[in-house]
Amino acid sequence: MEGQPNSQLTSKLELDSRIFAGLSYLSVLFVVPWITKRDDKFVMFHVRQGAALFLAEVVVWFVLWLLESFLTTVFSSGALTLISVLYKLAWLFFAAVSLAGVYFAVKGMEKQLPVLGLLSRNLKL
Fold first, then answer.
1. Are 120 and 30 within 8 A, CB to CB?
2. If you compute the radius of gyration of the chain from its CA atoms, what whole number of angstroms results?
3. What is the mean pLDDT of the chain?
4. How does pLDDT run across 26-53, given as a tens digit for each residue?
5. Crossing angle for the helix pair 15-23 and 41-75, nearest 10 degrees?
6. Which long-range contacts (CB under 8 A, 24 or more apart) does 31-34 make?
7. Would you say 13 and 42 are in contact if contact means Cβ atoms under 8 Å apart?
8. Max CA distance (Å), the chain
9. Which of 58, 51, 61 is nearest to 121 (CA)?
10. Residue 71 confidence class, pLDDT cut points 50, 70, 90
11. Residue 96 DSSP symbol
12. Is the torsion defined by CA of 124, 39, 44, 29 positive or negative?
């Protein structure tokens, strides 16, 4: 049952599992629950999504940096406004996805994040 609390863990999901699952969405901190809670399936569900989110962030920031480098070389300072807007939009998107992931984890839900949920299924952690 996607989006609902895990039926095996029910509403008595341990607080530390929910906290570690929420920690998975805070950038590189997904490594902490990955190392400490490898045997907890609920936490590992969120670790996989947190790792996918982190990888997506790294790729997007790198692409934006390349774009910024190219545009500022070709168009001088005129491209800085466009790049600034793209950076802000990317930051807002990743912040919103991170907050959604933390919310679902703390509530004890195994809900897939848009797009990243599909990517996280293929991660072997």
1. no
2. 17
3. 84
4. 988 899 999 998 898 999 999 999 999 9
5. 20
6. 34/125
7. yes
8. 58
9. 51
10. confident
11. H
12. negative
pLDDT of residue 10: 45
CA–CA gap between residue 19 and residue 102 (Å, rounded): 9
Which among 12, 80, 9, 71 is positioned nearest to 45, based on CA atoms? 9
Long-range contacts of 84-91 (CB under 8 A, 24+ apart): 90/60, 90/61, 90/64
d(CA 34, CA 81): 39
State both tokens at 96.
């919103």
Token pair, residue 38, equals 């490898």
What's the rounded Cα separation, in Å, for the pair 16 and 36? 11
Say which amino acid occupies 12.
K
